UniProtKB/TrEMBL annotation:
Membrane-spanning intervals of the chain: 7-27, 47-66, 73-91, 103-120
Domain of life of the organism encoding this protein: Bacteria
UniProt-recorded name of the protein: Putative membrane protein YphA (DoxX/SURF4 family)
InterPro entries: DoxX (IPR032808)
Bilayer topology: Multi-pass membrane protein
The keyword ATP-binding is annotated on this UniProt entry: no
Length: 136
């Protein structure tokens, strides 16, 4: 039962970031009332940077739903990377709390997922082709 509950959490988090990736690609004002091209420019980033962030969110969401520890760790670690940038951006931009509350919450969730899926042998994480070759 515990494993099924964890899988549900992974799918929920992945769905949230899939939705986030879609909104980054949405032209103009999206379904949640934000034009990310304008938001990224207001934060000091080039408007095209939203596509890079959206691609990372999409890749990490896909990795979270793959039922392998290594994939889930890489997805969560990627989200920690993206969300650290998001939290920093909200702090530097002095965004209101109600606009910037989601990023730190998701950062903690992604950090917990990364810790729960931390690889037993980090060498395998860095050299996945050796682990696959050893299995035959």
């Amino acid at each position: 039962m515990r494993k099924h509950a964890a899988t549900v959490v992974y799918w929920i988090v992945a769905a949230e970031f899939l939705l986030g990736a879609v909104t980054k690609y949405w032209p103009g004002v999206g379904p949640f009332g934000q034009d990310y091209a304008v938001r990224f420019a207001d934060w000091g980033y080039p408007p095209w940077f939203r596509f890079a962030v959206g691609a990372l969110e999409l890749a990490c969401a896909v990795l979270l739903v793959i039922p392998r520890r290594r994939a889930r760790f890489l997805g969560a670690a990627g989200l920690v990377f993206v969300l650290t940038g998001a939290v920093t951006t909200h702090i530097v931009s002095h965004d209101p709390v109600q606009e910037s509350l989601s990023a730190p919450i998701h950062l903690v969730v992604a950090g917990v997922i990364a810790l729960l899926n931390w690889p037993a042998q980090w060498q395998r994480l860095l050299r996945p082709w050796q682990a696959d070759a050893a299995r035959g």
